[in-house]
Structure formats: structure tokens, C-alpha cells
Amino acid sequence: MRSYTLLLVTSLFLIACSESRQRKPNALGGDSEVLVVMAKAHWDGAPGAAVRQLLEQDMPHMTQPEARFKVAQCAPEHFASLLEGHHSVLFAEISGTVDSAAVRELRDLHAQGQRFVRISAFDPETWIGLLQQAALPVVDGFEEHQRARTMARVLREQDKELVNTLRETQHLTMAVPAGFREMKRTPRFTWLQRDRIVSGGGLEHNVIEGLLIHRHPYRSDSTFSVPFLVEQRDSVTRAFVEGPDPGSFMIVQRAFEQLDLMPTGRGTRLKEHFAYQMNGLYGMHGAKMGGPFASLSTVDEERQELVTVEGFVYAPQFNKREYLRELEAILYSLTLIPKASS
Fold first, then answer.
1. How far apart are CA 318 and CA 63, in angstroms?
2. Beta-bridge partners for 299
3. Per-residue pLDDT tens for 234-284?
4. How far apart are CA 323 and CA 311, in angstroms?
5. Beta-sheet strands, E only, within the chain
6. Into which CATH architecture does domain 8-153 fall?
7. Range scoring the smallest mean pLDDT among 21-35, 148-162, 308-322
8. What mean pLDDT do residues 182-208 have?
9. Phi-psi region of 141 (alpha: psi -120 to 50; beta: other; left: phi over 0)
10. What are the start and end residues of each CATH 3.30.379 domain in the chain?
11. Looking at the predicted structure, is the pLDDT value of residue 24 above 80?
12. Can you give the pLDDT at residue 7?
């Protein structure tokens, strides 16, 4: 009798010896790209539509629609050679010969640094049901995998002088890549920024990426809420982050006409410690400037301080997904320095 039980299984692909591990190539593929291995008939039908609806959904809190992932597709018979080494794979197995309906994750199946998710079902309707039931862990897993890949690159590119400065002045480290410079610093606040000229559409435009670091006395767990963190952020940026025009300063966008633009937040983990991530849009009071931001807050228990690190991007002529993802990777590289080491 066929089993229709949903199995969400996370498996580590174990290799018998280190020698065979070394034979696997490093995973390849573009940033934020997911390769979907699915028969063309299903890709053109309801299963393909369900995948696109899930993976190409708009990222929240962006100034224009941007898909969460770039989705590429190939048929199972073409999944070989370079394609099977893609870093993020969603493999659709839809066949009457399937042993059981299941969702399984396999790490490093064909390449080092690969996240391979196989969804197996007897028919298209069951397959779509499995995908929808596992939608959150599937999407979050690909997000975390992309962040880890980006973080590995950022670690290779970090500015060691800036990292050491943060260690000495803010009692923390983050993998800040080359190109950032210090804009402002107080004993509890640091503003770093990178300005780049980027070409696109036959024109050249300035892209600004900013990092904000601030510390506050920690009172209670009620700190970890969007209203509290929004007010705290505004108090910091009003005092320290001036805009391009005289008297202008950064603020959190809460609404536009009838649109609710209030940021969203959620609890997460940062190196086995609780943290709270907030995403939203910022603007400039007194100036025309804005874009998306992300923040990560956690508690420095030794100093009884709330530590918040933030990244924001200004790129009015460009999509901002990859800029924001890199900034989030930098935030998640945060390490607090114990008193004895600082």
C-alpha cells in the first residue's frame, strides 16, 4: 500500500573516507539561484507553477518587486556534469514507482557546499501538497544556504584593519569587506559606509551600502519587538546619520499614503544565541533618499547591553536583493568579544 505521509527528513550525506570527500568539486551557480530539476511536462503544468509561485515570490520590504530567488530549470535526463554540481537544487520526482511521498534534504550530494532537496510523490497533486506543506523550511533553508555562501566569500574579503577597530571600540567583530570606511564613531555607535560607482543601462550610478552598530543598556526581553526597535533605531539615526541635504536624517518608513510599511521582525539564532532580525524600509527626513534595511539585535550578557547591527542600501537605479543579502551575511558574522579579550 502506498504511503502518503509527509516526511521532512534532513540527512547529512556521509562519505566513507576523506579521500572520496576531496574528489567532490565545489558547488557552482549564480547568487540567489535555485536549479529545479523537473520533467518539462510537469514544469509547464501545475507543479512548475507551484514552484515558481514559492521561489519567485516577492521579497518583502523592497522598493520595487524583486523575486526571492532566480529559478532555473532542467529535465532530469539533462541533470549531469556541471549542472549536478549546482549549489542549490530542488529535485522533483513524480512517478507511480516512488516508494513513499517524502521531502528529503541531502547535503553535499554531488558537490561540496550543495543543498539538495528531493521531493518525491506518486502524482502531481500529491507532489504539490508536499511542496506547500514544506514551503517554509524549504525557502528558509535555501535562504540560509545562500547566506552561508555569501558569508564565506565576505570572510575572504574582510578588511582586517576595520575588523580590529570594531574589536577595540565596540567589543565585537564582523566580517566587513574591503571598501567600507568609518563615517562616524562614538563610544556606543559606529557608522561604516561603502560608496561605489556601478554601471547599468548605459549610465553610471552611485550605490551606497551602510553598516550601523549601536549599543544600549539591556532592560528586558520586551526589547525584542518591532515597535521598540523601530523607536530605538530612529533615536540613533536622528542623532548620528545625516542625509544628503542640510538638516536631513535617516528615519524608518512606517507608512505611505494607505500602505502599511511598518518593518517586520522575527526571532532567530546567532552562533547559538538568541537574536532578533528586523527588515524594513528607511527614508530620509528632509531629503529624497531611501531603500531597504535589515537589523540584527542580540544581548551582550557580560556587559548587559543590547547590541544592534544594521545594514542599509541605496541603489535607486538597480535591484537591491544581492546588496541586501551581502549586508545580512555581514550582520550574521557578528561575534561579541568577552571582557577579558577586549
1. 10
2. 306
3. 999 999 999 999 999 999 999 888 889 999 999 999 988 999 999 999 999
4. 10
5. 8-12, 33-37, 70-74, 88-94, 102-107, 115-121, 172-173, 181-186, 189-200, 203-217, 249-252, 255-256, 259-260, 264-270, 273-285, 287-300, 305-314, 335-336
6. 2-Layer Sandwich (3.30)
7. 21-35
8. 90
9. alpha
10. 8-153
11. yes
12. 42
Domain with CATH 3.40.1000.10 in the chain: 159-341
Q: Is 82 helix (H, G, I), strand (E, B) or coil?
A: coil
Residue showing cell 540613533? 236
Residue corresponding to grid cell 547591553:
305
- Cα distance between residue 128 and residue 299, in whole Å: 41
Which is it for the CA torsion 281, 283, 289, 293, positive or negative? Answer: negative
Helix (H) or strand (E) holding 152: helix 135-157
pLDDT at residue 177 above 60? yes
DSSP codes of every residue in 88-133: EEEEEEE-TT-SB-EEEEEETSSSBT-EEEEEEESSHHHHHHHHHH
Give pLDDT, residue 304.
Answer: 96
The answer to whether domain 159-341 has CATH 2.60.40.150 is no
* Mean pLDDT, residues 34-38 taken together: 98
Q: Please provide the distance, in angstroms rounded to a whole number, between the alpha carbons at the two ends of the chain.
A: 63
